[in-house]
Structure formats: structure tokens, C-alpha cells
């Protein structure tokens, strides 16, 4: 089976975990502190707070901003609905923005109208949570521009974007804070895990308190990462460069076969015609968009029968039962949800694996063409 994702582990992670177990100290301790220092250094941020997941990181950040009942949070629909769920659980209203089918990121051209409309509907719009979807940077400068104009706080959901640079600066370092996820499908993993990065000492202090029962001074949570997880994370961080370049190599193989093929649209930043090295440098999920007449779910099922794991890219949060309205407010996100196909992508894959995935996909998309080609080849052979 060629799996969609796989952690890039070797003996080093096992040894690191073994050392933590032998030490007798397994909860948040020195390894977590070292992991936080390493992430902060790598990202060029002043503070890092390690937590139990990307969702926990978002929960803490929205609480640290003081988000409460009746507030509005601007969130792209086409993204894992972690921020939307947290907003909802805090009694706030997620205000969904549609995405672009070219790079799957929020469409900044729609932002101002949505903010204005929400304000005139009486919603206290407090924050924007832009997502760097699948590791591709969103237009953060435009997000910051509107945030400044309407006095909104920005928490960057960089769950998928460790290693993503925007003009040389790590994604997640532009707003009040940024978050990462270390789920096994992400660039590096700690099994489950997450982190917050911020330059604000005041915000970092609030986050640390919220992670640890409010330090018994205010109400808080227990979102502490363990030293076992951090030990894995430290080894993984040391492999970040290797992981990114191995993934890049796999993407290049996909591009050789898939770029320019009818029926499949690659994200714009990868295609040969509009290539962006920045965006292409840390792709966490390679999602392609299949033409509307192709039954995406059938392709996923057939690929699975052929021992290739593929998946839908991401839900469109505005269509989830808790958030859905009668009219489709984010049609591009709906299309991405319906026609997006995530291909296997991880550092342990080989070029042959990627070739097999891409060629199988083309065979499934064009079964008639394949047959026709085979017949034509046969006829040529017979004629010779
Ligand atoms: C954009 C985005 N935000 C947040 C999360 C939540 O991260 P976690 O699974 O670590 O809670 C994910 C996870 O898939 C994600 O893709």
C-alpha cells in the first residue's frame, strides 16, 4: 500500500523516547523546554508554547485574545474546521470566507465586504484566523492590511506550514501569534502535538497560564505536551531540512507526469507556468483538483483497490452540519471539497511510488483514452 502519509522515523526517535522513559520524567519538563527553544529559533520568534495539538493551540490563542459570546471570527471555509469549532464552542460566530481554486487559500478580495457586512449585521468582529492551506502561504500582507483597518487581531493557522517562508520569514510570525500542528500528517510529528509562536511576552504568558490550569490564578486548561512527545519532536526538527527536500523531490516527480494533463488542475504555485518557489518549498498536502465531470469519490475507491491511499483534501467548514445555511455562501470552497484529491506525500516515498500514483490516476481518469491508445498501438504493431 502506498499510504497518504507516514512519519519519517528511524532509530533516533526510538532512542530519544527510550532516554525519556529511562529518566523517569515523562511529563512536561526539560525536553519540552528544549523543543520550544528550538522551534522559536527556527521560526525567528521570541516565544514558543508547546501544547497537545494544533486545535489546543488555537483554543488557547482565541481564549488569550478574550474571544467570547457574540464575537465574530473571520475564517476561511476551506480548511480543517479546528478554528471554526473553537469559535463556536466559545460562543463566537465563525464568519466564513470563500477560497480561491487556484491555491486553495482564502480569497482576500472578499475580505472587506464580509467584514463590512458582519459589522452592519451587528456582529463584533474581533479576529481573523487566516490559514496557510496545505503549507502554501496565503496573502498575509492583505490580511494584515484589513486587520489594521478594522482593528482585528490576527492568529495565523500555520498548522501545515512549518518551513513555509513568506519573503524569507516563517509563516506564523506575522500576526499576534501563529500555531503549528504536529499530527502525523504534518511536516514533522510528535504523534499528536502543537505549538504557539509569538513575539509578545504578554500573550505568551497568557498562553502558558491557559495551558496549565491558569496557574491556579485564573481558569485554565491542561494542554501540556509530554517530554516523550517533545523528545520525538526534537529529533524530527533536526530532520526538517531533509524532510522538506525529500517531499520536494516527490512533488517534482508528480509534476513531471501530471502538470498540464486534461482533467486535473494542480495548485497554481506548483504548475510550470506560474511557479512560486516560496509556496512550493513546504507543501504539506498535494491536493489536485479534478474536473467537474470526474467522480472523485469513485477515483478514491478505485485507487484504494489498487493499494494507493488517496483522500479528499479538506472539508468546506461552511457546509458542515453545525454551520450550514440554506444558500451556499462559499461556492469555491464547496467545489474544492467536492473535487479535491489529496495524493500520497511523505518523506519515505520513492520516485517510483510517486510515478505509480500519478500514472494510475491518469489511467483511471482516461480509461477510454487508454483503451484507444492500446488499440492504436496494437494496430500499429500489426501493420508493421
Ligand atoms: C489548518 C489546520 N488547522 C488546525 C488543525 C488542527 O491540528 P490538530 O490535528 O493538531 O489538532 C489542522 C489539522 O489537520 C489543520 O489542517
Number of strands: 12
Percent of residues in beta strands? 5-15%
How much helicity do the residues have? 40-55%
N-to-C CA distance? 39 Å
The CATH superfamily label of the largest domain reads Type I PLP-dependent aspartate aminotransferase-like (Major domain)
Low-confidence stretches: none
Q: Judging by the overall fold, what is the CATH architecture of the largest domain?
A: 3-Layer(aba) Sandwich
User: What count of helical segments does DSSP give?
Assistant: 14
CATH topology of the largest domain: Aspartate Aminotransferase, domain 2
Elements, N to C (H/E)? HHEHEHEHEHEEEEEHHHEHEHHEHH
Q: Which CATH first-tier class of the largest domain would you pick?
A: Alpha Beta
Q: Order of strands in the sheet with the most strands?
A: 1-9-8-5-4-2-3
Tally of distinct domains: 2
Ligands in the model, by name, code or SMILES, are: pyridoxal-5'-phosphate
**Sheet/helix structural class:** alpha/beta
Overview in brief:
By secondary structure, this protein is an alpha/beta fold.
How would you describe this protein?
With 384 residues, the chain is of the alpha/beta class. It folds into 2 domains: 11-238, 3-Layer(aba) Sandwich (Aspartate Aminotransferase, domain 2); 241-383, Aspartate Aminotransferase, domain 1 (Alpha-Beta Complex). The protein is built from 14 helices and 12 strands. The strands form 3 sheets. It has a 7-stranded mixed beta sheet, sandwiched between helices. Strands 10-11-12 form a 3-stranded antiparallel beta sheet. Strand 4, helix 6 (140-149) and strand 5 (153-157) form a beta-alpha-beta unit. Helix 1 (11-23) runs antiparallel to helix 8 (227-238) and helix 9 runs parallel beside helix 13. The longest helix has 19 residues, at 240-258. The protein starts with 10 loop residues before the first helix and ends with a helix. The mean pLDDT is 94. The structure holds pyridoxal-5'-phosphate (PLP). Pyridoxal-5'-phosphate is lined by residues 53-55, 79-80, 82, 131, 157, 159-160, 181, 183, 194.
Amino acid at each position: 500500500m502506498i499510504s497518504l502519509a507516514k512519519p519519517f522515523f528511524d532509530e533516533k526517535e526510538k532512542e530519544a523516547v527510550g532516554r525519556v522513559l529511562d529518566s523517569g520524567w515523562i511529563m512536561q519538563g526539560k525536553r519540552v523546554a528544549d523543543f520550544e527553544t528550538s522551534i522559536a529559533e527556527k521560526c525567528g520568534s521570541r516565544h514558543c508554547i508547546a501544547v497537545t495539538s494544533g486545535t489546543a493551540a488555537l483554543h488557547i490563542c482565541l481564549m488569550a485574545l478574550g474571544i467570547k459570546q457574540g464575537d465574530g471570527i473571520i475564517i476561511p471555509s476551506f480548511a480543517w474546521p479546528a478554528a471554526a469549532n473553537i469559535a463556536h464552542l466559545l460562543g463566537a460566530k465563525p464568519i466564513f470566507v470563500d477560497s480561491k481554486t487556484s491555491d486553495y487559500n482564502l480569497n482576500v478580495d472578499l475580505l472587506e465586504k464580509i467584514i463590512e457586512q458582519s459589522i452592519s449585521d451587528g456582529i463584533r468582529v474581533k479576529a481573523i484566523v487566516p490559514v496557510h492551506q496545505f503549507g502554501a502561504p496565503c496573502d498575509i500582507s492583505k490580511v494584515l492590511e484589513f486587520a489594521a483597518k478594522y482593528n482585528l487581531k490576527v492568529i495565523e493557522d500555520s498548522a501545515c506550514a512549518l518551513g513555509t517562508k513568506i519573503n524569507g520569514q516563517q509563516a506564523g510570525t506575522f500576526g499576534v501569534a501563529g500555531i503549528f500542528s504536529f499530527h502525523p500528517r504534518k511536516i514533522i510529528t510528535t504523534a499528536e502535538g502543537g505549538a504557539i509562536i509569538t513575539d509578545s511576552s504578554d500573550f505568551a504568558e497568557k498562553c502558558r497560564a491557559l495551558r496549565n490550569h491558569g496557574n491556579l490564578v485564573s481558569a485554565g486548561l491542561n494542554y501540556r505536551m509530554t517530554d516523550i512527545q517533545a523528545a520525538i519532536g526534537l529529533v524530527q526538527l533536526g530532520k526538517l531540512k531533509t524532510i522538506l527536500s525529500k517531499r520536494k523531490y516527490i512533488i517534482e516527480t508528480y509534476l513531471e507526469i501530471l502538470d498540464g494533463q486534461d482533467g486535473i488542475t494542480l495548485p497554481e504555485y506548483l504548475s510550470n507556468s506560474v511557479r512560486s518557489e516560496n509556496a512550493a518549498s513546504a507543501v504539506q498536502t498535494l491536493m489536485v483538483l479534478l474536473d467537474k465531470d470526474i467522480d472523485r469519490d469513485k477515483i478514491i475507491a478505485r485507487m484504494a483497490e489498487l493499494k494507493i491511499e488517496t483522500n479528499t483534501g479538506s472539508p468546506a467548514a461552511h457546509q458542515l452540519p453545525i454551520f450550514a445555511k440554506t444558500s451556499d455562501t462559499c461556492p469555491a470552497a464547496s467545489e474544492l471539497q467536492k473535487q479535491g484529491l489529496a495524493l500520497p506525500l511523505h518523506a519515505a516515498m520513492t520516485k517510483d511510488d510517486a510515478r505509480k500514483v500519478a500514472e494510475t490516476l491518469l489511467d483511471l481518469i482516461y480509461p477510454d483514452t487508454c483503451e484507444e491508445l492500446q488499440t492504436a498501438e496494437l494496430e500499429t504493431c500489426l501493420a508493421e
